[in-house]
Design a protein that fits this description.
This protein is of the alpha/beta class and about 280 residues long. It has helices at about 35-50, 65-70, 80-90, 105-110, 110-120, 160-165, 170-175, 190-210, 225, 230-245, and strands at about 5-10, 15, 55-60, 75, 95-105, 125-130, 180-185, 215-220, 250-255. The structure holds thiamine diphosphate (TPP), iron/sulfur cluster (SF4) and magnesium ion.
């Protein structure tokens, strides 16, 4: 396949063209969502015309080789520390578009402190957060995002919330912070959802280009190998069980007036049971 050449044409119309920024075929397992997310990032950066001034801050996990697949300047960071590294890069080069690409083990477990404080500081970075509910690279162990009852190699009887806690809705939590200008969750479960996720990724980068603050897009993704399913079964599980637990949508887009309704600091406290 030649980069940039039309891949699919119908009645003389190009239906799909491989983006120039997607430089090499990926090495992900069949049915893995990482490749789809890479393509969306490549398409959006190309569309915005900023590929030449974008810096990818990579992390640890199956996407550790993202710098091989995306023709972008890049920096590799230690596990979980991508938001801290991206903070430094963006502060030194505010003229650049800086984004992290992180898995859920990376962002929601090992790097919990980094993501929370980068968001709280309102760093002008974009975060692409690929949530496949598992530690894919290391053999399918339980992550904070693993669903209640889900079997993993480290929770063979299923995640027991009584001892292992509840799944962490990181993006909803971050959306409460005033420094977070844009937060959304998408999914790669079907073409329509992929289109919406693409729009969310574009919006997140636009927010950075407008110098507004922190932006994050969580993408619900598959790990057929870690889930012990075929690629088709994994997509079905994503579309049903996973999306039932993690609703997709925009949680905050402050420039467009979408924000969570929180009590105003200093305003009189109203009990949720008021009136009963
Ligand atoms: C500090 C540290 N702890 C643990 C590891 C081992 N490790 C490498 S990848 C990984 C899990 C990655 O999972 P996730 O971020 O969800 O990415 P995925 O592979 O699922 O896309 C772990 C625990 C490490 N490299 N460094
Ligand atoms: S182990 Fe899972 S996350 Fe990693 S490449 Fe394979 S399918 Fe993708
Ligand atoms: Mg993962």
């Amino acid at each position: 396949m030649t980069v940039g050449e039309p891949l699919v044409e119908q009645e003389g119309r190009t239906v799909y063209r491989r983006p120039q920024l997607l430089s090499n075929p990926t090495s992900y397992c069949p049915g893995c969502g990482h490749g789809i997310v890479h393509r969306l990032v490549a398409e959006v950066l190309e569309e915005l015309g900023v590929g030449g001034k974008t810096i990818l801050v990579g992390s640890v996990g199956c996407s550790v080789f993202a710098y091989d697949f995306l023709a972008l300047d890049s920096v590799e960071s230690p596990h979980g520390r991508a938001p801290a590294v991206a903070t430094g890069v963006k502060r030194v080069r505010p003229d650049r578009v800086v984004f992290t690409y992180q898995g859920d083990g990376d962002l929601a477990a090992i790097g919990t402190a980094e993501i929370v404080h980068a968001a709280a500081r309102g760093e002008r970075i974009t975060v692409i957060f690929v949530n496949n509910g598992i530690y894919g690279m290391t053999g399918g162990q339980m992550a904070p995002t693993t669903l209640a009852g889900q079997q993993t190699t480290s929770s063979p009887r299923g995640r027991d919330v009584a001892t292992q806690g509840y799944p962490l809705p990181v993006t909803e939590m971050l959306s409460l912070l005033p420094g977070v200008q844009y937060a959304a969750r998408g999914s790669v479960a079907d073409p329509a959802l992929v289109g919406k996720t693409r729009a969310a990724i574009r919006r997140a980068f636009e927010v950075q280009l407008e110098d507004r603050g922190f932006s994050i897009v969580e993408v619900l993704s598959t790990c057929p190998v870690g889930w012990g399913l075929t690629p088709v079964e994994a997509m079905e599980r994503l579309r049903t069980t996973v999306m039932d637990a993690y609703p997709v949508g925009t949680f905050v887009d402050r420039a467009r007036g979408i924000a969570p309704s929180l009590p105003t600091p200093g305003a009189p406290h109203r009990s949720v049971t008021e009136g009963f």
